[in-house]
Write a structure and sequence with these properties.
Helix content: 40-55%
Largest sheet: 2 strands, antiparallel
Distance between the termini: 90 Å
Structural class: mainly alpha
Strand order of the largest sheet: 1-2
CATH architecture of the largest domain: Orthogonal Bundle
Order of helices and strands: HHHHHHHHHHHEEHHHH
CATH class of the largest domain: Mainly Alpha
Number of domains: 3
Length: 343
């Protein structure tokens, strides 16, 4: 009986097709409808109306063609995209449960620009606005086009409400209150506001904030202030961490992007502060400025490097900065270190 089917090619083809389809449904389609196949990270919430509008702009402008939104569990990617700052080891790379409410997924497959999976932890709103308006003013080597025109485009609240209703039909837990509040949330907002809000939401489902600066002791002395080798190392670390992209290759600052680190101002006020203040800012980022009692940028743009660099590394960067022009007279620095820094 079994042998007869081979003599009937049409019947055999139909039987094979049905068998393959049945297997595919059992192995691929059925699991899609099982809740345990769709994990969610604890505390996951859907995007707000403004963030959702930003995601819509992100898709429309083709950002996914140049940026990915997933950090793979590879050491090189974890370090490159600052995943090593995560409070828990599982947060060092992208988790499936972070994308449970994404329709469609925007993981991407090409990195003409950097991965954006953790962008919400890495940049401030002020940085994002400046970058979208004129990318080269923030990152001189960037080939990203400018999106200043988004400032002139308003967000359509009714369109976003319709989008939220459609997503609710796919299982995203938007409530009637969310739908009712969309118009108020989007009133007066531009597409620039929306895409910045979306950028700030990325990666926030998991704690990846990094180590803060804790309490700053302004009396603490730089232990490597006069160490010539440490000063040279500080220069190398400044370059390796990409500090020059914002502060300039020689820490001289870039107008409208980031301040000089070698003049007589610090955090928006005249008069310098001790080495420990610089140490705290590098380690803990913009949150530290509150302890220092100075305004800095209105929204802060400095990310913390406490999880990327050891304390000794940070002190080395401070030592190099102090040996740049404008800091030769810094307390505790000797002629040998100053001479080395000016070579």
């Amino acid at each position: 009986m079994a042998g007869k089917i081979y003599s009937k090619p049409i019947v055999f083809s139909v039987a094979v097709t049905l068998t393959v389809l049945a297997g595919s449904i059992a192995m691929m389609a059925y699991p899609m409808f099982r809740s345990d196949m769709h994990p969610k990270v604890e505390g996951l919430v859907p995007l707000t109306a403004l963030e959702l509008a930003g995601r819509h702009v992100y898709q429309r402008e083709g950002c996914v063609n140049c940026h990915t939104q997933t950090v793979r569990p590879l050491q090189s990617e974890v370090v490159r995209y600052k995943g090593n700052r995560a409070a828990e080891p599982s947060g060092r790379y992208s988790l499936a449960g972070e994308f449970a409410y994404d329709h469609p997924f925007l993981w991407g497959s090409k990195r003409t620009g950097p991965d954006l999976a953790f962008e919400g932890w890495l940049k401030s709103a002020a940085w994002q606005y400046a970058h979208f308006e004129n990318p080269q003013a923030v990152v001189p080597r960037s080939n990203m086009p400018a999106y200043a025109f988004l400032k002139a485009r308003s967000v359509d609240a009714e369109e976003m409400r319709g989008h939220m209703r459609a997503l609710r039909g796919l299982g995203v837990p938007y409530t009637e209150a969310d739908l009712a509040g969309a118009e108020e949330q989007l009133r007066g907002k531009t597409e620039m506001d929306a895409i910045v809000a979306y950028m700030l939401s990325l990666g926030k489902a998991v704690d990846r904030g990094g180590k803060g600066g804790a309490e700053i002791d302004l009396e603490e002395q730089n232990p490597v202030a006069t160490d010539v080798a440490a000063i040279a190392k500080g220069r190398q670390l400044f370059d390796a961490q990409g500090c020059g992209a914002c502060h300039g290759d020689e820490a001289q600052g870039q107008e409208g992007v980031a301040p000089s680190l070698i003049d007589d101002e610090f955090l928006g006020a005249k008069g310098d502060l001790p080495d420990a203040a610089y140490f705290g800012m590098i380690k803990g980022g913009s949150d530290v400025k509150q302890q220092l009692g100075r305004p800095g940028l209105a929204d802060g743009g400095m990310q913390p490097f406490g999880s990327d660099l050891s304390d000794e590394d940070i002190w080395s960067i401070v030592a190099w900065l102090r040996n740049q022009k404008g800091h030769e007279a810094s307390e505790g620095h000797h002629d040998e270190a100053a001479e080395h820094g000016n070579r």
